[in-house]
Design goal:
The protein has 10 helices and 10 strands. It is globular. Helix 2 (47-56) packs parallel to helix 3, helix 4 runs parallel beside helix 5 and helix 8 packs parallel to helix 9 (241-250). The protein has helices spanning 2-19, 47-56, 85-98, 114-126, 140-150, 173-180, 193-198, 203-209, 241-250, 269-283, and strands at 34-38, 61-64, 68-71, 74-79, 101-105, 131-134, 153-157, 187-192, 214-219, 256-259. The protein has one domain (22-283): TIM Barrel (Alpha-Beta Barrel), CATH 3.20.20. It is of the alpha/beta class and 290 residues long. The strands form 2 sheets. It has an 8-stranded parallel barrel, surrounded by 5 helices. Strands 3-4 form a two-stranded antiparallel ribbon.
Length: 290
């Protein structure tokens, strides 16, 4: 009888985890990484079109952001954590149709107020997301409480250095590490490597600083180290995408990598496909550290 009870408890435990933060399945991996698109790449289009374009580029996962137009025929509706159950069901149906998995949501402001923050976590639970992305450092205590309750990860995102705003510190990986290092292990960094390059930082060095605390990645290949740098196809710029892949795999990174292509806005599918192809080819080469 005790054995049966233990088995039932284990099954229920697995069911609870499935209902909350489902690990990203191996079927979503490309070159050993859960590689997809940040829907911001397709911000000129609706969320339904972004899902279609993500599939057309050869990706397998998508990260949503708050406020994207819902669909071409309902452009006044916005898709975010205020979405109705009917809107969420329609998005899930489009994801299933295109063979795409939703894995993350952000960058979204998370309020200190628990009721407001819980709304975001409930939205993530409905979509069975792996993580949420934010810069709301002031809400860290509320975030940690809900991370423990929902078993959904939270990554703190970095935008580029702001010389006219010295109070903005998220660009610095050492600052982000200081924010998360004594918190629950499911709280860490959303490593936006493009903004690091725009801040004059080398992405691989930054990833090493945040070793073990990387929740997700916004992947950019940038054309130069400059505040005005822009995205180019992977392998043709200065971000060192190969080194980034190696470092993530060295850290046994299990989160999502979202290509966030902020250039050629209305016709970027081919460029995004080149980025995915680079990661697929490099990440799958023989002898790479698993």
């Amino acid at each position: 009888m005790k054995i049966h009870i233990a088995i039932i408890a284990a099954v229920l435990g697995c069911a609870r985890l499935t209902a909350f933060a489902t690990p990203i399945p191996e079927s979503c991996l490309t070159g050993g990484l859960a590689l997809g698109c940040q829907a911001w790449t397709f911000k000129e289009f609706s969320v339904m079109e972004a899902i279609d374009k993500t599939a057309a580029a050869g990706a397998r996962v998508i990260e949503f952001y708050p406020g994207q137009k819902f669909s071409p025929d309902q452009p006044d509706l916005k898709f975010d954590h205020n979405a109705t159950d009917e809107m969420i069901a329609a998005v899930k149906a489009r994801l299933a149709k295109d063979g795409i998995r939703a894995v993350n949501y952000g960058v979204v402001g998370i309020p200190k107020d628990e009721a407001g923050a819980r709304k975001i976590f409930e939205f993530a639970k409905k979509l069975e997301l792996y993580g949420i992305t934010t810069e709301s450092v002031d809400a860290i205590d509320t975030i940690e409480k809900l991370v423990k309750e929902y078993d959904i990860r939270v990554g703190f995102h970095d935008h580029q250095r702001q010389p006219d705003n010295p109070g903005y510190k998220m660009w610095d990986p050492n600052y982000v590490l200081g924010v998360v290092k004594d918190r629950d292990a499911r709280i860490g960094s959303c490593a936006d490597v493009g903004h690091w390059v725009q801040s004059g930082l080398k992405p691989v060095d930054c990833l090493k600083i945040l070793d073990g605390r990387i929740i997700s990645v916004h992947l950019h290949e940038m054309n130069e180290f400059s505040p005005t740098a822009h995205d180019v196809p992977a392998g043709t710029g200065v971000s060192n995408i190969a080194g980034i892949i190696d470092e993530l795999k060295r850290q046994n990174f299990a989160g999502n990598v979202s290509i966030e292509y902020e250039y050629n806005w209305k016709n970027s599918v081919t460029d995004v496909a080149q980025c995915i192809g680079f990661v697929r080819g490099y990440g799958a080469r023989p002898g790479l550290t698993p």
